[in-house]
Amino acid sequence: MSIEFVLLGVSFGQAKLAKLRRELLTPTSKGGGGAGEGFDVTKSGDARVGLVGFPSVGKSTLLNKLTGTFSEVAAYEFTTLTCIPGVIMYKGAKIQLLDLPGIIEGAKDGKGRGRQVISTARTCNVILIVLDAIKPITHKRLIEKELEGFGIRLNKTPPNLTFRRKDKGGINFTSTVTNTHLDLETVKAICSEYRIHNADVSLRYDATADDLIDVIEGSRIYTPCIYVVNKIDQITLEELEILDKLPHYCPISAHLEWNLDGLLEKVWEYLDLVRIYTKPKGLNPDYEDPVIVSSKKKTVEDFCNRIHKDMVKQFKYALVWGSSVKHKPQRVGKEHELEDEDVVQIIKKI
Ligand SMILES: Nc1nc2c(ncn2[C@@H]2O[C@H](COP(=O)(O)OP(=O)(O)OP(=O)(O)O)[C@@H](O)[C@H]2O)c(=O)[nH]1
Ligand SMILES: [Mg+2]
């Protein structure tokens, strides 16, 4: 009995906290504060990658080395005061890299330019959390907390659970697996915190209270993240080996340009982009300038839309060469899913 009460207490607390966080993010009056507003930098290219970290970890140095763009570098903190975009051309894709001001603890609650930085991070396809190899590794968790508090979920997939509001019938809880975190009482407690008294909740895995809160609140963003540990020129080989155990990690020295190729390869992997080569009728495919689509939206229709918004209206069928098809070429419709490095020829209606 007492254990149940403790559990209930935890979930009450979590739900309350989550609600508080949301209220913090909601602007209190129109035009006031500008909460949730990022920096005014236009999205361009095929994907956007953001550099997030404490001051002086080497974000600007990294932007300069990777993109050739100039962003001021200095030994003092808060050198960068706004968002500076640069461009990386990689495997035919144009990747926008954003240098951002350093954030501090409490950034999500409005300290420094934190909110603007994190709002901009929300618009990125991949986030690079830059850490200083000579600073405590606990900094990793501090930065994660700031991003999480702003609704960004790092290297996570959306919770596989259904939450449906109803008009009546109370709270209904079903699960296809054994749950160690949630039971009917906890689910009811969380729902009541949001003044929800009628809903169906069904789980297909061992979800936590936080997972349920994420789904109830919505507006979560699921972003792949790489922990870039910079300044490895300052540590010993033994220390590097310990760092090596971190998941999603990439060691570099921006200043000495160590392992920047390794970092780009990892960024490419986490962006999970698909390159499609176009083949005009009677000509060779254009291998220099692929059309880039995301691996989540890679149908022939998505490909057409990347070229021109009206293209799909004239679409009759497509000929495809590559790993998504058996025959070379194969005739496909606009629902067909393409794979990396496929060659496509669009046949239009006459
Ligand atoms: N030893 C070493 N120093 C580095 C490296 N990268 C950057 N630095 C130094 O670290 C200091 C801070 O670098 P910046 O690139 O300005 O850092 P930042 O993260 O952009 O800092 P803010 O804009 O203040 O947030 C500078 O003195 C750099 O020369 C590296 O790989 N090794
Ligand atoms: Mg900087």
UniProtKB/TrEMBL annotation:
The keyword GTP-binding applies. GO terms for molecular function: GDP binding; GTP binding; GTPase activity. Keywords: GTP-binding, Nucleotide-binding. This is Developmentally regulated GTP binding protein 1. CDD domains: DRG, TGS_DRG1. InterPro entries: Beta-grasp_dom_sf, DRG, G_OBG, GTP-bd, GTP-binding_2, GTP1-OBG_CS, P-loop_NTPase, Small_GTP-bd. Residues 272-348 form the TGS domain. NCBIfam families: small_GTP (TIGR00231). Residues 47-272 form the OBG-type G domain. Pfam families: MMR_HSR1, MMR_HSR1_Xtn, TGS. Gene3D superfamilies: 3.10.20.30, P-loop containing nucleotide triphosphate hydrolases.
